[in-house]
Amino acid sequence: MSPVHCRFVLVLAILMLATALGASTAYARDSEKQWEFGAFGTESRYSNSTNVKSAAGYGLRVGYHLKANVEFELDYDKSSSDSVNQANVSYDVTKYVPTVMRIFQPKGHEKMAPFVVFGVGRLGIDGNGASENSTVYKGGGGMKYFLSPHIGIRFDAFLWRWHGHGEILPRNPFYSFDANLGVTFLFGGAK
């Protein structure tokens, strides 16, 4: 089965599970002093000038809600890709990014919580016997859809800005785009 078909089947299975579990009332309530943990799959698309193919990967996140609408989060994700123009050359790309999230809770949409995210962190790329690290800037947003008061599905889309350092990639600024789909778990919080 091709990678595109595998991703489609995974998304379809998650949506079917969400429909089955989401029949009861759930409230999208991110509350103060609450922890959030999640895992996600990611699809990364890199600038054409990087000569790195699009890549699928995975990631983990943990966050703390300072307020009901403000969360500090630490994200880790990893993907592997191949070179566009060099045979048998592959790259491992990892990102560690602390982020600040602003959550919106629109009235009348108790199961849904849209958000915007900004962060600064570290991107590492390894391949072809070399490695380099760069500061990475992240901006984007998404939506949480709660199946129960503590379990939800989360979709994110981000734009990244980073630099090559001449070891693997040219000394140029690059942009990339990530789309993530995963689950989120909330626990703790103010009583």
Question: How does this structure look, described?
Answer:
By secondary structure, this protein is mainly beta. It has one domain (26-188): Beta Barrel (Porin). It is 10% helix and 61% strand. The chain contains one helix and eight strands; from the N terminus they run αββββββββ. The chain has one helix at residues 3-21, and strands spanning 34-46, 55-67, 70-82, 90-103, 112-127, 130-148, 151-163, 173-188. The protein has an eight-stranded antiparallel barrel with strand order 1-2-3-4-5-6-7-8. A hairpin with a 7-residue loop joins β3 and β4 (90-103). The N and C termini lie far apart (48 Å). Residues 22-26 have low confidence and may be disordered.
Mind sketching the topology for me?
Elements: H1 3-21, E1 34-46, E2 55-67, E3 70-82, E4 90-103, E5 112-127, E6 130-148, E7 151-163, E8 173-188
Antiparallel strand pairs: 1-2, 1-8, 2-3, 3-4, 4-5, 5-6, 6-7, 7-8
Provide a concise account of the structure shown:
The chain has 191 residues and is mainly beta.
Characteristic key phrases:
191 residues; mainly beta; Porin; 1 helix; 10% helix
The general outline is elongated
Helix/strand-derived class?
A: mainly beta
Count the helices. How many? 1
Helices and strands, in N-to-C order?
HEEEEEEEE
The CATH topology corresponds to Porin
Proportion of residues in extended strands:
over 45%
The level-1 CATH class: Mainly Beta
